[in-house]
User: Which sequence fits this backbone?
């Protein structure tokens, strides 16, 4: 069964600092991977996705993630945090050959300090 | 292009009652999935409908059911509500291909008292 582990339920950074949110997956085959962001009382918005093309994926709002098969990781980064980046971030996986369902990590709440 | 619309946004129900939530997907999308989000369990998959057929189902009791209409709109029903059913219920629509992203609605916040 697939699973996703997000290390750190809370991450705090200063405005302008590097953002690094960690995601590791467990899957028998290389899955499709997604990062979503959720603002308070809102649904989820896709930041970026990996579907077996380029391993470095660029998304919206300056975020990017790198798929590393050897480490089974898909960490999300942004060079310089902005106050508007404060939100909860979810990593999700879907198996190319299995069920359509997204399996989500528990989420990481990002706080950006002025 | 209109996004995914979920109604109502907020609901308060009493234990033992039943509730129906509605989701209108993006035009042209044939897949609708439902997720339950709680602080303790996070985001959990309920079920997915594609072209009016349930294609996948999560590990929820039979009190949770759904359906999809010919226009792709979907409804989710929860019968005999329990306090633990209090959650944000999110609907996601997609074209139905695993490579393409799911677009989420703003959710329905259900509170069971």
Assistant:
């Amino acid at each position: 069964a697939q699973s996703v582990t997000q290390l750190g339920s809370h991450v705090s950074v200063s405005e302008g600092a590097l953002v690094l949110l960690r995601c590791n997956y467990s899957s028998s085959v290389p899955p499709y991977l997604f990062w979503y962001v959720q603002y308070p009382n809102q649904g989820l918005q896709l930041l970026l996705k990996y579907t077996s093309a380029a391993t470095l994926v660029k998304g919206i709002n300056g975020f990017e993630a790198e798929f590393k098969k050897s480490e089974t990781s898909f960490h999300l980064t942004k060079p310089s945090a902005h106050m508007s980046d404060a939100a909860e971030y979810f990593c999700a996986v879907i198996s190319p050959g299995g069920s359509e369902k997204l399996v989500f990590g528990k989420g990481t709440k990002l706080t950006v300090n002025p | 292009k209109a996004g995914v619309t979920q109604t109502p946004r907020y609901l308060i129900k009493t234990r033992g009652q039943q509730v129906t939530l509605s989701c209108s997907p993006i035009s042209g999308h044939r897949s609708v999935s439902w997720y339950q989000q709680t602080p303790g369990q996070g985001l959990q998959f309920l079920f997915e409908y594609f072209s009016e057929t349930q294609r996948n189902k999560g590990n929820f009791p039979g009190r949770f059911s759904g359906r999809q209409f010919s226009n792709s709109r979907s409804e989710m029903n929860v019968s005999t509500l329990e306090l633990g059913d209090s959650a944000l219920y999110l609907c996601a629509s997609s074209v139905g291909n695993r490579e393409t992203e799911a677009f989420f609605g703003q959710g329905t916040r259900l509170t069971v008292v």
